[in-house]
Write a structure and sequence with these properties.
- The complex is a heterodimer.
- By secondary structure, chain A is an alpha+beta fold.
- Chain A is built from 12 helices and 10 strands.
- In chain A, the strands form 2 sheets. Chain A has a 7-stranded mixed beta sheet with strand order 1-5-6-10-9-8-7. A 3-stranded antiparallel beta sheet of chain A has the order 2-4-3.
- Chain B is of the alpha+beta class.
- The longest helix of chain B has 19 residues, at about 775-790.
- Classes of the chains: A alpha+beta, B alpha+beta.
- Chains A and B meet through helix 5, strand 1, strand 3, strand 5 and strand 6 of A and helix 8, helix 11, helix 13, helix 14 and strand 27 of B.
Chain lengths: ~350, ~800
């Protein structure tokens, strides 16, 4: 730089800017070096006094000084602003351990979790979801299921009656009869989750109200192996891939053969423990091949069609899965109980 | 059905099988064993003889005994409190270290006298008190004089070394209420030889007894006469046999009746022949009147009940109980025995109406084998001959409505395997059915199986398939998923929407409950916000708390709130969806209860629940379902409701139908439900019309390219004027230029005067084809102000 004075202004200015500590300092420096009354501005008037050949150089040098100082001021200004913001933000620090807002997530009664999940599993296997009334006729609840009046099997299910022919359904099986009636001899693949009622006193293991999921498949050439495989798939999806099932002979008036289905105990993995009374297995559901009489009564030719049916206790599955010790807990709805079940899936 | 393994061994070999293995085998074959029980138990037992018996010096009831335990254990001193302890008595001694049902026997000192063991009663060995006399229960067991001192197999000596299986006999297998048939079943399962006693009795004379039936409820009636019997005590083996099966010994003749019933399954009835006016017994169902039974009580018999009459006078309530008039007693000499078949349904009605259920009636209810009456009578005869000193035995007279024929079922190996998903060979199937006493005739394409007479449950070839698989085992069933037409399994529209509503509420932080459908009469009348449809009542409720099938959920859900508030759970957001059923309809309801605060940041920021919380939930449901705001409205409740705050409640009207009501709970109700000092908001809604509502497919609406302008208006109006009317007017007046108008503040207080409120509304102006000018906007705004002033007497503020 040829002009010593400009050089001095630039050097002094840069030094001062470098040392500035606050935005006020910077504003003051901006006025001092770039303002209308600054030394630099006043030097503009010198140009007129200079010889032509120097005019150009001086002008260029003066602009250079202006630009450099202005850049330096802006940079410093930004730096100081950022610093000030950072300090301000630091002061605003909050306690991040306090609870979050809008954190409320509703909890499903485990009854509903199990019902929803079981429904999804069977939908995945191509089942449709059927529905039927909880207040039923004797005809659907008993007669059409091969349980005529005065059949001793009626004693197996203590019934709430509305009148002689109307009752609270004792199982979801009447939906089998209703579905067959609707299907008019065509193949059927349904489940029906729903509430059922029996004339039982409530205690830890009995409830006058409980729920089941009924399943029914009717087609040509259906056999017990299909029931076994379907329930095996269900058990693995519901309780885990390692679980095995076994079938035991049993009796229901509307299936023949009838089976009880046991699943390997979750607690001991089948070795035998207190929970499974040393057997390694826990009973989870009943089922069987639809009785030929039931097919006949509901409009199917048992020589052409066959089917399987099953009924799973919803609370029973939830009790086993979550280790719930009293069936009344479902119906008390203590929110401390409910809030343990927020997990989806 | 109690099955003593000791008794069953008389008919089938159980060698090498433990009680557990037998129980397991039965259970897998469909006969669940509920319990394995030991008749009595105890270790370190020995038979001893009391050599000396002196009173304890420091006690008024204890004795000091010296008991000879035989060569091996010598003589021990035992302090004993039994009143019947005496010198010379043979007793059961539990030596030191003996483990009895009540605990372990230790050596001790009782009031200064050492005692090394205990003299036992049968009670202390675990024998049920119902089999023991009061004398037996009060003291130690008195063994016979010839009891072998030093014998250590005491339970064996007493006949108590037995295990008893408790079988759960399901309704299809009444044949298992017979020990012979249980033996046959065990024989089939474990492939053991079964030996059922055979008897051949010759008649000494022809009886004058005439049996018959004037009702189709008694299809078979056999009788026999026996003369000169002696009623006395039963032999010990029979007492033991009966005890193991849970039956108390009475006398030889009653015991033989029970013994025959337990072994064959056929209940018998015995008449004192000398007490009948004539030798005829006829089953009828037309008797009406009083009947004095064996238990000396009088029962009302009605037409339809089966009675066995002698000259039209009832001598027995068939299958249920005999009459006092011709009862067998200790002086009875001559008897008639009846073995009949009665209609199960009738016996069921009679016994349950009169409260007279017994082992015998329950066998008739479940079904008896009609083919065996002669065998049963002969079997009873052989026992009476032996144990009742019977002198003369008549022939058997029988009434039978029709000839019984063998039941034959035709099936094929393919059909059996087809139903089971197995590939058993013809031989395997034949062999397993024969093990179960079917007669099988194999043909080329099919086979015929003759069903054993006692298997009432086997009637079709599906039953045969069950017989095959329950014995061969379900592990033979190949697990194969069915190959069916591919189908999209899915929820229906209604089911899907219900699920969406539930999950919306869950996401909003509400907890999903499930409550009982049965409530009390009083409760049914509480909180019936929606309908007064006639409800169903239960004919046979367990308690009056549960006698109505509810038509609403809200009361039940409020009780859940009460339950929780009582347990310090004070902020509640609960909902339930459930199916309702009344005499006129079935519907799906939703109920919501909000109590306390909406804890937005736990306890730090809680907003007390109010009317608008609930309204917001309803609006969210409508939005989610795609039901536009124009299709529903919230009306003020027209009728007076005790349940809701009159000024803070509303009716939801959808397509001109009331589908729900909600609002803040009436203060009286907050107190009634013990919810404390809190706010509570409730809703009950019938979801049916929403679940099935037609909604249009969403089509995008273009958004104006030109900027919109928002301007605020504040008015003072009468408090009674509703914001929605102001907005309606603004939108109507502004026509196309007003794209939105929303209330952003409502103020009531001193600045606006009594009965007034200030409403501030933000109005958004826009236009699809150009940017609005100030002039245009002001013009519209002035029109709006004018209309509001005119329509609502609104005063412009600020």
């Amino acid at each position: 730089m040829q002009n010593e004075k400009l050089k001095a202004i630039l050097e002094e200015g840069l030094k001062q800017i470098e040392n500035a500590n606050s935005l006020d300092d910077i504003n003051e420096l901006r006025n001092r070096y770039l303002g209308k009354k600054s030394e630099l501005a006043s030097m503009g008037s010198i140009i007129a006094t200079l010889p032509v050949e120097e005019k150009k150089t001086f002008g260029q040098e003066m602009n250079e000084v202006k630009t450099k100082l202005s850049q330096a001021i802006e940079e410093k200004n930004n730096a100081l602003k950022a610093k000030a913001l950072e300090e301000k933000l630091q002061k605003e620090t909050i306690d991040i351990s306090l609870p979050g807002r809008e954190s409320n997530l509703g909890a499903r009664n485990p009854f509903h979790i199990v019902k929803d999940e079981m429904t999804e599993i069977f939908i995945g296997m191509g089942f449709e979801v059927a529905d039927g009334p909880e207040i039923e006729t004797d005809n659907y609840n008993f007669e059409l299921l091969n349980i005529p009046k005065d059949h001793p099997a009626r004693d197996m299910q203590d019934t709430f009656y509305i009148d002689e022919n109307t009752l609270l359904r004792t199982h979801t099986s009447p939906v089998q009869a209703r579905t067959m009636e609707k299907a008019q001899g065509k193949p059927v693949r349904i489940i029906c989750p729903g509430k059922t009622y029996r004339r039982d006193d409530d205690d830890a293991t009995h409830s006058h109200q409980f729920a089941q999921i009924e399943g029914l498949v009717i087609d040509k050439n259906i056999n017990i192996g299909h029931l076994k495989a379907t329930l095996e798939l269900f058990a693995k999806k519901m309780f885990g891939e390692k679980r095995e099932i076994r079938l035991r002979s049993s009796y229901f008036p509307f299936t023949e053969p009838s089976v009880e289905v046991d699943i390997t105990c979750a607690n001991c993995g089948g070795k035998g423990c207190n929970m499974c009374k040393g057997t390694g297995y826990i009973e989870i559901l009943g089922g069987g091949m639809v009785h030929p009489n039931v097919l006949k009564m509901n409009g199917y030719d048992p020589d052409v069609y066959s089917g399987f049916a099953f009924g799973i206790g919803i609370e029973r599955v939830a009790i086993l899965r979550y280790g719930i010790d009293d069936i009344r807990k479902f119906y008390n709805n203590d929110v401390r109980f409910l809030h343990q079940f927020k997990k989806k899936g | 059905m109690l099955v003593s393994l000791k008794n069953i061994r008389e008919y089938v070999s159980l060698e090498g099988l433990t009680a557990e293995e037998i129980a397991n085998g039965l259970t897998f074959a469909g006969i669940e064993v509920e319990e394995i029980r030991k008749l009595a138990s105890g270790t370190n037992l020995v038979i001893g003889e009391i050599k000396t018996c002196v009173a304890h010096p420091d006690s008024d009831h204890l004795h000091i005994l010296n008991v000879d335990l035989g060569e091996k254990y010598g003589v021990e001193q035992i302090v004993c409190g039994a009143p019947n302890a005496r010198t010379g008595l043979k007793v059961i001694v539990a030596r030191v270290g003996a483990k009895l049902p009540g605990g372990e026997i230790k050596a001790g000192v009782i009031r200064g006298q050492s005692s090394n063991g205990m003299c036992c009663s049968l009670l202390e060995l675990g024998v049920d008190a119902k089999y023991l006399t009061e004398y037996q229960q009060a003291g130690i067991e008195e063994l016979p004089e010839d009891a072998p001192v030093g014998e250590e197999d005491v339970l064996g000596y007493l006949g108590l070394d037995d295990e008893v299986l408790n079988l759960k006999v399901l309704a299809n297998r009444p044949d298992l209420l017979s020990l012979f048939n249980v033996a046959r079943e065990i024989g089939a399962i474990f492939e053991r030889k079964v030996t059922i006693p055979t008897v051949h009795e010759k008649a000494d004379f022809e009886t004058d007894l005439v049996v018959g039936s004037k009702t189709d409820k008694c299809t078979q009636f056999s009788g026999k006469e026996i003369r000169d019997i002696t009623v006395k005590d039963s032999p010990k083996w029979m007492k033991d046999y009966l005890m193991a099966m849970g039956v108390r010994s009475i006398n030889n003749i009653v015991d033989i009746g029970n013994y025959v019933m337990l072994t064959t399954g056929q209940p018998l009835h015995m008449y004192d022949a000398d007490k009948l006016s004539a030798p005829n017994l006829t089953a009828r169902d037309d008797y009406e009147g009083d009947f004095v039974a064996l238990d000396e009580k009088t029962y009302k018999v009605i037409p339809g009940d089966i009675v066995i009459c002698c000259n039209k006078k009832p001598m027995c309530l068939g299958g249920v109980m005999g009459s006092l008039e011709c009862a067998v007693d200790e002086n009875t000499k001559n008897i008639y025995i009846e073995a009949a078949s009665f209609d199960g349904a009738t016996i069921r009605h009679t016994s349950s109406r009169l409260g007279l259920a017994s082992e015998s009636s329950s066998r008739f209810v479940k079904g008896t084998n009609h083919f065996q009456s002669e065998f049963v009578l002969d079997y009873a005869t052989s026992l009476i001959r032996k144990y009742c000193d019977g002198e003369a035995f008549s022939d058997i007279v029988t009434y039978q409505a029709e000839e019984y024929a063998d039941k034959k079922i035709t099936s094929s190996v393919e059909r059996i395997n087809g139903r089971l998903g197995t590939d058993f060979s013809p031989n395997e199937i034949k062999e397993v059915l024969e093990r179960l006493h079917f007669k099988v005739m194999m043909g080329k394409e099919s086979f015929v199986a003759v069903v054993p007479s006692w298997r009432l449950d086997v009637t079709c070839d599906a039953d045969l398939s069950e017989e095959v698989i329950r014995l061969l085992g379900f592990e033979n069933v190949k697990s194969v998923l069915p190959c069916l037409d591919t189908k999209v399994g899915a929820l229906t529209l209604e089911q899907g929407r219900l699920k969406n509503i539930r999950f919306l509420l869950l996401d909003k932080g509400l907890d999903e409950c499930v409550t009982y459908s049965l409530i009390s009469k009083k409760e049914q009348n509480l909180f019936n916000l929606l309908n007064n449809e006639e409800h169903y009542g239960i004919l046979n409720p367990l308690t009056d708390e549960r006698e109505i099938f509810r038509t609403h959920i809200l009361h039940s859900l409020l009780k859940v709130a009460t339950y929780n508030v009582a347990r310090q759970n004070k902020n509640l957001a609960l909902f339930e969806t459930a199916h309702m059923q009344s005499k006129s309809s079935r519907s799906t309801h939703l109920a919501i209860v909000l109590v306390g605060k909406e804890a937005r940041q736990k306890e730090m920021e809680g907003i007390p629940y109010d009317f608008y919380h609930m309204k917001g939930l309803v609006e969210a449901i409508m939005d989610m379902l795609g039901v536009e705001a124009s299709r529903y409205r919230f009306d003020r409740n027209k009728e007076h409701l005790d349940e809701l705050h009159p000024g803070k409640s509303a009716t939801i009207v959808f397509q001109n139908q009331v589908i729900g009501r909600f609002g803040e709970l009436h203060p009286n109700k907050i107190a009634e439900y013990d919810l404390g000092k809190t706010s509570a908001v409730v809703l009950e809604m019938n979801l049916d019309s929403l679940l099935s509502a037609k909604v249009s497919i969403t089509k995008m609406t273009p958004i104006s390219r030109f900027p919109s302008v928002s301007r605020d208006l504040a008015f003072v109006v009468d408090k009674t004027i509703e914001a929605k009317d102001l907005i309606k007017s603004i939108k109507f007046t502004g026509k196309a230029l007003v794209s939105e108008a929303q209330v952003f503040d409502v103020y009531e207080g001193e600045h606006v005067g009594e009965g007034k409120k200030s409403v501030a509304i933000s109005v958004t102006y826009s236009c699809d084809d150009h940017t609005l000018t100030d002039k245009e906007i002001i013009e519209v705004e002035n029109r709006i102000k004018f209309e509001l002033t005119k329509q609502f007497k609104a005063e412009l503020r600020g």
